[in-house]
Amino acid sequence: MNNKIHIQASIAADRKKAWDAYTLPEHITKWNFASPDWHCPSARNDMRPGGTYVARMEAKDGSFGFDFEAVYTDVQEGKGFSYKLGDDRTVDVRFTESGDQTLVDVHFDPENQNPQEMQQQGWQAILNNYKAYTESL
């Protein structure tokens, strides 16, 4: 597997607010898409080792959609979590509070169908949506 891809965002929120906006399904559906022509109509999240995460990703015009699914391997409430995707790639997300900001760091294994730069840009776009959404709460 190639080197992990890293993305991050500094959120103007305390760690609890940042955590809740990232992990609660009612919030996930508001920010979990890379471009305005996509949306996330549903999400389920069982945050415990062995629990599953499922987010439905769809083009707004109905032309394409898929379920993004993962199984948690580690959960440290309010601090971070790791999960494994169906193709055995891993994702690690960490929340570090510093003053009135929370730094969200995401490291993930790239897939081998798209250029790594494209993957990084797509995941960063989603994280940027999360930042804007969380800061608007």
Automatic annotation (TrEMBL):
Activator of Hsp90 ATPase homologue 1/2-like C-terminal domain mapped to chain residues: 13-134
Sections of the chain in a coiled coil: none
InterPro entries documented for this protein: ASHA1/2-like_C, START-like_dom_sf
Family membership noted in the UniProt record: Belongs to the AHA1 family.
Protein name: SRPBCC family protein
Organism: Rurimicrobium arvi
Annotated Pfam families: AHSA1
